[in-house]
Write a structure and sequence with these properties.
The protein has one helix spanning about 1-40, and strands at about 45, 50-55, 60. It has one domain (about 1-60). It has a three-stranded antiparallel β-sheet with strand order 1-2-3, with no helix packed on it. It starts with a helix and ends with a strand. The protein contains one helix and three strands. Strand 2 and strand 3 form a beta hairpin. The longest helix is centred in the first third of the chain and has 37 residues, at about 1-40. With about 60 residues, it is of the alpha+beta class. Zinc ion (ZN) binds near residues 37, 40, 53, 55 and 56.
Length: about 60
Amino acid sequence: MIYERKSSLNRVIQIKVEMKELEAQLEQLKKELNILRESCTHEFEKKDYVQKCMKCHLIESLQW
Ligand SMILES: [Zn+2]
């Protein structure tokens, strides 16, 4: 019983550490994506109320 509780606590700590690492990785990837989008010469494909760039997958709303 005591062991189980300790084990799940360790897992919680492990999950939190992993989440922090993934969050940092996500931030890094978002930055990288933004850099790519800034240098993209967009080629939009229109769909209903949005248009999506076929190259960088940027989505823009066409609604005003
Ligand atoms: Zn683009």
